[in-house]
Amino acid sequence: MEALPFLFEGLWITIKIALISMVTSLILGLLVALVRISKYKFLSTLVSFYIDLFRGTPLLVQIIIIFYALPDLGIRLDRYPAGIVALTLNNGAYVAEIFRAGIESIAKGQTEAGRSLGLSYLQTMRKVILPQAFKRSLPPLTNSLIALLKDTSLVSVIGVQELLKQGRQLQTWLANSTPLLGVALMYFIIIYPLIKLVQQLERRLKKGMT
Amino acid sequence: MIKVENLHKHFGKLEVLKGLSLEFNKGEVAVVLGPSGSGKSTFLRCLNLLEIPDEGNIYIEGDNILGKKHNVNKLRQNIGMVFQQFNLFPHMSVTENITMAPLMLKKINQAEAIKKAMKLLDRVGLTDKAEAYPDQLSGGQQQRVAIARALAMDPKIMMFDEPTSALDPEMIREVLDVMKDLAREHMTMIVVTHEMGFAKEVADKVVFMDAGCVIEQGSPAEIFNTASHDRTKLFLSKIL
Q1: Residues of A numbered 131-160 whose beta carbons fall under 8 angstroms of chain B's beta carbons: which are they?
Q2: Residues in chain B with pLDDT < 50?
């Protein structure tokens, strides 16, 4: 029982890392998606490569490379920033694809209506396309937040004192595996409401579409 | 007011417009007729550069809109467009649909924009729907809102791309009535439609297109009664 505050400390760090990474990867993902669908062929190919690269390699490998290998190139990051950068780059790639699918699912007539009124491409994006695309992307975005919350456990390998790391330390100190069950329970308690939220969002979207 | 010279447009290997030349005068209501696939819509979409022609010239009030320095967004502010599928913005209320573009592009404040939107809604007979969302409206109501939305930018020209083709028969009239009102106020209009009644009643000029070419043009009486070209006669015999 006296171990609980110790776990809560880890949980707090897990939530902080997940929220910061979610915000940064939303921004990154949106920018990448916009470049990906833009008419600039070279930039579009470049960001496609980024997306494929980060979706095509394990996140664990990305975390380890960013923390242990980048210093060889002169880029030295502390554990926390390194973890957040890795999670952002990884989740950003997924978010970019979610946004791209969302944007492309909006009927072409919407863009044409905006442009025919005299709005520029970016104005049409901002006022007409993105609000609709964002709404449709909410369920998959929430799913990616769930994945991100779970993936934060991987940054324990570079020594970030998040929930799993704290649990394993307790396990060693107490020579008892109960803290690990506490860890799993805590993940579940924060993730379960999100799962329910996705289901609700999907239901509402379905209703709105018919 | 609008002068089109030798307009060509390809989609891949398909040649959709084969050297169109046409003129439209200020205050004139022109109806463009023709079988589907004849290039009517593409022609209309070239006029506000939703499609970029491959060849030819388009002058609007003397300006060559295909010139390099021409501002496309400014051009489109002067040309209202109404689509077959309405294309209202589903995430905005009727009023927001109408005020969005003026608020972004004209120097007016919210109160003025809303006042103007209400005036336009009055004109299309939908003041009671100001706060509704597009999915709460019938097709005919949506199309009337779309017309109000286009008019909110005070365009000099209004283009209609088969505005009643997606409507149930009982709703066609309410849309045509709004268009007839506009014609009476001497709006310059170019209308692609299959509504022959509308063409006969309000058109100053009827243009018949087939296979990417203008086959003939003239007053409604000339086209409907004394068409000289066989293809025009054949088309009219099928549709009248």
Answers
A1: 131-132, 135
A2: none
